[in-house]
Amino acid sequence: MTVSLTRKDEFALLTLNRPEALNALSFDILRRIGAAFDEVASWRDVRGLLITGAGDKAFCAGADIKELRQRELMNQKRGAELGQAVFARLDRLRVPSLALVNGYAFGGGAELALACTFRLASPNAVFGLPEIKLGLIPGYGGTQRLPRLIGEGRALEMILTARSVKAEEAERIGLVNAVAEGDLLEAGLAFARRFSGYSLPALEFARRAVQRAGDTTLVEGLQVEADLSTLAYRTRDAEEGMAAFEERRKPEFTDG
Ligand code: DAK
To answer: What's the number of domains the chain is made of?
Structure first.
């Protein structure tokens, strides 16, 4: 199976499983990733989605270059739209997602990591958008998500010069949340448990509000925040959280 979806405690774990090609994204794999996201959406009891690559060399070396050649123009456009649409599904999942970047995350692989809510890197992780070397530019969201995360200047440098960024620098510039020593999956589970006990509706509203910060004006963004924070206030979990504070006990959230 080139993509496997399993359970790991209270989390879903998606593994890109094509290590002989450094987990490169064929269109078939892209579709399977999309189907896996749909499946995760139907698992009502998971608290987060972890994504990683099989093997110790690569998270994902990008779109399958061999497959990208000699396609009709409109097929290329549909291919880019497919990749964009699949990665955008991560935003609509009710649970946060976490990329566990174990080695190369190039091109489409970096774009998959960028589409996740969080990124955790192993010390040997390397990020790059090297499409320019192929006479291409990123097609699965990289030109839009990278500048939102690390700023336009740094994003332009990575995209126009193909300079890759190792784990330590990635952490310094905010491309990853942390670099994990030791077992990356264990570190990922520990990271995910830092949010997984909170109310899912609150986590979702917060993600939506923060996402809007990157693509709207301050005035509109504040309006979105006012609306979503009011919605959060109306949940049972908010009532429970505030009651628990007053009663000096741990809240018991029910995701309602
Ligand atoms: N695609 C296909 N195969 C790949 C691959 C890739 N992206 N990356 C690696 N492989 C394969 C290699 O061909 C090799 O296979 P065999 O020759 O053994 O059969 C195997 O994986 C191991 O790779 P290497 O032998 O090259 O391993 P090294 O350790 O020497 O080098 C590397 C590792 C990651 C530095 C190197 O493999 C590399 O530079 N890979 C390519 C990285 C890259 O350029 N990624 C970006 C791809 S472009 C779109 C528009 C744009 C895009 C997509 C869609 N549309 C308009 C539809 C662009 C997307 C991209 O991601």
So the answer is: 2
